[in-house]
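Narrative progress, year one. The postdoctoral researcher (J.K.) led the effort to move from monomer predictions toward full complexes, under supervision of the PI. The following entry was the first complex the group processed end to end, covering 626 residues in total.
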Amino acid sequence: MSNIIEPGTVKKSLSAHAAIGLIAGALLYIVSLTGTVAVFYQELQRVEQPVGPEMFAIAPDAVQRGVEAVLASEAGKPVTTHLYVHLPVEQLPRATVTTDTQALHLAPDGTIAGREEIAWSDFLVQLHYTLNLPALVGITIVGILGVMMLALVVSGVVAHPRIFRDAFRLRARNGNGTGLADWHNRLSVWTLPFSVAIALTGALIGLASVAAYAIAADDYQGDVEAVYGPIFGEEGEPDPRPAPAPNVAGALAHMARAYPGVEVTYAILHDPLTRGQHVQIVGEHDRRLIFGEYYAFNANGEFEHRAGLSDGELGQQAAASTYRLHFGTFAGLPGKLAYLLFGAALTAICATGIYIWLGKRRRRGIAEPRLRGAWHGAVLGTPLALVLTFLARLITGNDFPFAIAFWTFLAAAVVIGAIVARRTAAGVTTVSGN
Amino acid sequence: MPQEMLFFAATAGAIAAVAVLRLSWARPRRSVALNATGWLILLLSLAAGWACAGAWGVSILSLWAMGAAFVVLAAAAWTSPPARRKPPSRRAGMLPDAGEPLRLGGRIATFLIVVLAGMVAAVALGLATRWLALLIGASAANANVLALFVVPLGWTILAFLILMTESRRRQIAILAAAVATAIPSLASESLL
């Protein structure tokens, strides 16, 4: 590599790497850490609400009863636009119905068993997805962070002329900066495929809204849904006239008969209790990256068509593969544990990058104790804030203001870190001056 | 069953490839033969993974290879002697040293060029790619997904190029060229 890349290019690339890392480092750290924990979203739900009814499977008729019971519980209120039935799977063996306004667990016989209470798990996922900002703004910012992570990968590789020769050199016991740089560089090199996959899929998911708006404005008269139609399937024509609940049981029974090898994960009702209603079943395919295939049924539970995510256009398959690749849910618990390891490495890379930069400046005589203290505060404060909010969930219940508590605690940790480091440095200076 | 055997062999190959590369890169002098062997085993393993289970297979094998590398790295960290090597001192040049001007305006301008103008230019690249794809007969699904992929990838390349370019004029030229690619898409009738 050193023979290929000019020293001037390496220097410029290092500057670019530092610039991106310093501007985006803190948010990248938060997004990496929360993403690493959120890989266990399913398991966390069971920890957060251990008493929910669990089952290996649920009969189609029981699902039908559950759907009708939940819809009946919302009588007199605006009818939900969508209704999702999460069906029991190995890592989350619960049947849960979610509407626009509530989420309820079902018992194995389809009766309503109680509220789903997973506010902390949802807070964690929202923190990762949108940094708790309004949805469109937040997800776009996180998408931009994905781009910045990709740019860090590119600039990091170009700035590292001995990338192969040093690939296995890890001087972990060198405390003067070399060790930290080695950890940063070696973890970066060996998580490269993971980092690229996570950053690209994250950027794609995050920036899809902006890109879709532009495509819609250019070619679909501003209709954003029309951009996604050819990829994930078209929505049916709405017809708001009232109708009885659709035949979800029929759709599920058809899936069991016609597609025994497909694991059904969700039943989705579009515009339920209207004549425009239809049912979508999501089925997971073994040994595929796609999150599933959409199987479309009419309100009578009769099969109509598949969207083509499993065997349609290459673009459909690629788009459907981004989610599980990003969230690490394509290989069961071993895959999630691998994502935990590499996600922790990615988080450490984000943290060490800024420490390396601060260390270099200190060795050149530019001490920045407040900046270093603030970074200590962010690095330690983020996981601590997550733990404290989780404890608050266990102690106070589902209605705790997690987002406000998290950001307040983190801001306090950063400020306190800066103040403590400044005072410590001032004390050291005074002592050495005496 | 043969598929299972092939996938198992591919997994073993991915791990072995990392071991061979470890051996190769630990030598005082480069061995072209060992290097090539390591990369070849890795490529063959990934190809076998693709043949067995497509993108899923490649993803699983990548996890195995990275996991194997982590084990080797952990061993390197464990056996690492306390070194006295001088720490790296390459300047990143992100902030000025003492006495140097801060150039805050220039830094903010660079940030805005990379983030705001970069986003516009990347979206333009996405529209241009989609238009080109439709022009050569791609389906709407493929063209739309291609555009969704090109936006983050194009932005990454633009951000890198802009930050590697010191001349402001050249930075703007790079962005202008990217934005200009969308003109045919914006100026023409729909190809759907």
